[in-house]
Amino acid sequence: MRPSGRDLSEMRAVSIETGVTKHAEGSCMIRIGDTHVLCTATIEDRVPPFIKGSGLGWVTAEYGMLPRSTTSRMRREASAGKQGGRTVEIQRLIGRSLRAGVDRVALGERQITVDCDVIQADGGTRCASITGGWVALRLAVNKLLKTGDVVSDPLVDPVAAVSCGIYAGQPVLDLDYPEDSDAGVDGNFIMTGTSKLIEVQMSAEGATFSRTQMESLMDLAEKGVGELVALQKAATNA
């Protein structure tokens, strides 16, 4: 029934390659099907002015899509002179999602910026960015622990995300682009490794949905996030 031939509860093939850039404190390339995202984490000994002197750390994110990450070339946002609304919304989502798994007191007064650059898009880029972003963040924090710059681990729980939706009347896990573009309902589910919810974004795209259907999507999301967290831990030896 699914264009890819997958079962309703089957994820696309997922791989996480770490240490893919030379200079970043943490980096990975996450591939979820044909969606590929480069995630890098940068540690800086500064924080935004609104928390300066508080002793709290900060985790933030930036997101972007390369011009040929899609079927036709997109203009670089830098050439337009500003970021689009979608970009701003997604990078704020990534930042607040990752912060939900961080003890900012233990992190200390420093900032970690996670950059997520979409190399190739086939649906679920924000979910892949959050999942890969946590891996890059984990690797960067590992360096702080190794050097003794932080004493206790500030990452209290892994964070991962997956999309689910109602496609052809059936709840399905991990939408690719053909499904996402034709789904009656779609949603993004951001959760911790202990199945705590961070954020749920759900909307009807031409068809309403029931509470029972919402709960079936939640069950699928929990299964998918569990698989992603296992891959995150394997990639970072956590």
UniProtKB/TrEMBL annotation:
SUPFAM superfamilies: Ribonuclease PH domain 2-like, Ribosomal protein S5 domain 2-like. It is an enzyme of class 2 (transferase). It catalyses: tRNA(n+1) + phosphate = tRNA(n) + a ribonucleoside 5'-diphosphate. The keyword Transferase applies. Residues 10-140, 157-224 form the Exoribonuclease phosphorolytic domain. Keywords: Nucleotidyltransferase, RNA-binding, rRNA processing, Transferase, tRNA processing, tRNA-binding. One of its GO terms (biological process) is rRNA 3'-end processing. Transmembrane segments: none annotated. One of its GO terms (molecular function) is 3'-5'-RNA exonuclease activity. Its EC number is 2.7.7.56. It holds the Pfam family RNase_PH. Phosphate binds at residues 86, 124-126. CDD domains: RNase_PH_bact (cd11362). InterPro entries: ExoRNase_PH_dom1, ExoRNase_PH_dom2, ExoRNase_PH_dom2_sf, PNPase/RNase_PH_dom_sf, Ribosomal_Su5_D2-typ_SF, RNase_PH, RNase_PH_bac-type, RNase_PH_CS. Homohexameric ring arranged as a trimer of dimers. Belongs to the RNase PH family. Phosphorolytic 3'-5' exoribonuclease that plays an important role in tRNA 3'-end maturation. Removes nucleotide residues following the 3'-CCA terminus of tRNAs; can also add nucleotides to the ends of RNA molecules by using nucleoside diphosphates as substrates, but this may not be physiologically important. Probably plays a role in initiation of 16S rRNA degradation (leading to ribosome degradation) during starvation. This is Ribonuclease PH. The gene is rph.
